[in-house]
């Protein structure tokens, strides 16, 4: 058990939390989507250095659940919220919110929309000015996701998502998320675009290549991203990823002191 060395400031906070001098903050429900295309390659964003959480890290699209994501009015195709709840061990209301957040955040952060006019279709193109206006309105929360879909006559395609993992930010962090990980394939005809916002760079990368870049310290990956990429590197096709059977096990890294040094371990 070697773990990841903690920087001095976080190590000090870890000691305070472990000693009971500081209480852990609650973790916010969130969803993250690993977007795939043939190769297989994954879509990664580099978070701006000014961000309060995971500054400079390469991450998958994702973010917190908006309370409006649980709206039952969302048109839905594919596995039901109850089925997603069973997969992630949560109630039906939260499961609906997680799936909606996954689709909404993917659109906000990549321009890719996992929805279509019907249960067997997807939107062909989301690059026009009207789509961009809606994307920005979703980001600033002036537009609810359910209203966005309803106004455009779209159905959320939950069948285009696959449950992958469940990570909770360590209790020592001052910003914490209870994040469900999904995987999805880039729909035919759609393409990602540099949408700005929280990221200053986007890239499609083979999982093994991203891991190698992290080992060479050319990019920074947080433990959940690193672990997920390591898992995906075992597959030589998108179909292989989708065909695998996953049991969702909760992982919450914890701080431990090893020979006088605070380290973060995931097992």
TrEMBL record:
PROSITE patterns: NUDIX
Nudix hydrolase domain residues: 26-227
CDD domains per the UniProt record, alphabetical: NUDIX_AcylCoAdiphos_Nudt19
Keyword annotations: Hydrolase, Magnesium, Manganese, Metal-binding
InterPro entries, sorted: NUDIX_hydrolase-like_dom_sf (IPR015797), NUDIX_hydrolase_dom (IPR000086), NUDT19 (IPR039121)
Cofactor(s), by name: Mg(2+); Mn(2+)
Listed Gene3D superfamilies: Nucleoside Triphosphate Pyrophosphohydrolase (3.90.79.10)
Gene Ontology terms for molecular function: hydrolase activity, acting on acid anhydrides, in phosphorus-containing anhydrides; metal ion binding
Matches recorded under PANTHER family: ACYL-COENZYME A DIPHOSPHATASE NUDT19 (PTHR12318:SF0), TESTOSTERONE-REGULATED PROTEIN RP2 (PTHR12318)
Protein name: Nudix hydrolase domain-containing protein
């Amino acid at each position: 058990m070697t773990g990841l060395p903690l920087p001095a400031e976080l190590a000090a906070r870890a000691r305070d939390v472990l000693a009971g001098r500081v209480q852990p903050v609650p973790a916010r429900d969130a969803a993250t989507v690993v977007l795939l295309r043939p190769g297989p390659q994954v879509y990664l964003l580099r978070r701006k250095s000014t961000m309060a959480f995971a500054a400079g890290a390469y991450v998958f699209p994702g973010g917190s659940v908006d309370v409006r994501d649980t709206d039952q009015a969302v048109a839905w195709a594919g596995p039901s919220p109850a089925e997603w709840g069973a997969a992630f061990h949560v109630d039906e209301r939260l499961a609906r919110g997680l799936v909606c957040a996954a689709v909404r955040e993917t659109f906000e952060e990549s321009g890719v929309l996992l929805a279509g006019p019907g249960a067997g279709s997807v939107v062909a193109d989301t690059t026009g000015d009207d789509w961009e206006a809606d994307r920005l309105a979703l980001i600033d929360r002036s537009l609810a996701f359910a209203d966005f879909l309803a106004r455009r006559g779209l159905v959320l395609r939950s069948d285009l998502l696959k449950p992958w993992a469940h990570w909770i930010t360590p209790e020592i962090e001052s910003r914490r998320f209870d994040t469900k990980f999904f995987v999805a394939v880039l729909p035919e005809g759609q393409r990602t675009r540099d949408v700005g916002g929280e990221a200053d760079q986007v890239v499609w990368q083979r999982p093994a290549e991203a891991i190698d870049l992290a080992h060479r310290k050319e990019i920074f990956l947080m433990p959940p991203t690193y672990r997920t990429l390591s898992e995906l590197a075992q597959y030589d096709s998108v179909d292989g990823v989708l065909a695998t059977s996953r049991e969702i096990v909760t992982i919450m890294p914890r701080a431990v002191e090893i020979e006088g040094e605070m380290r973060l371990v995931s097992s």
